[in-house]
Amino acid sequence: MSLRLIVMRHAKSSWDDPLLDDFDRVLNARGKADAANIGAWLKAQGHIPDTALVSSAQRTQETFACLNIDADITLQDALYLASSDRLLQQLRQAQGNTVLLLAHNPGIGDFAQRFARQLPQHPDFFRYPTCATTVFDVAAETWADVRFGKNDSVDFCVPRDLRD
Questions:
Q1: What is the CA radius of gyration of the chain?
Q2: What's the burial of 63, exposed, middle or buried (CB within 10 Å: 0-12/13-18/19+)?
């Protein structure tokens, strides 16, 4: 069994309501469109998750919904603003062959950098902007055995790459 991991930052959220708690912020129009485009890109590339580990924040839930991908979703409070170490800890409990890990910066960008054996040669990889997505072939037999620095990055995309 080979494992694949898709690491994604949530799409662009709205700051229109200054009284809204950060956890409850929703996506703006660009964020919804970007997430839909990334979902279409994932499908076109054949990177289809069977399981999604998603932060329970509103903007990550909306990002997943806009991807229009049929996967078993697990909402996790522990992924909200999680460090890369916490993200790895949660990933080690995953099920399925292809997992989508959908969370927030700075943790998710740091996670992608640390998870890779070699880094994608893309100008936006280190910035890890909203809806940035990296696909990895995982160098482990089970999710419980995944480690940083061992995994091949096979694809990387940001929404700007998909805009006309």
A1: 14
A2: buried
**Of 69, 73, 65, 67, residue with least CA distance to 48:** 69
What digits encode the pLDDT tens for the residues 98-142?
Answer: 999 999 999 999 999 999 999 999 999 999 999 999 999 999 999
pTM for this prediction: 0.97
Three-class secondary structure assignment of the chain: CCEEEEEEECCCECCCCCCCCHHHCCECHHHHHHHHHHHHHHHHHCCCCCEEEEECCHHHHHHHHHHCCCCEEEEEHHHCCCCHHHHHHHHCCCCCCEEEEEECCCHHHHHHHHHEEECCCCCCCCCCCCCCEEEEEECCCCHHHCCCCCEEEEEEECHHHHCC
In tens, the pLDDT along 12-53 reads 999 988 889 999 999 999 999 999 999 999 999 999 999 999
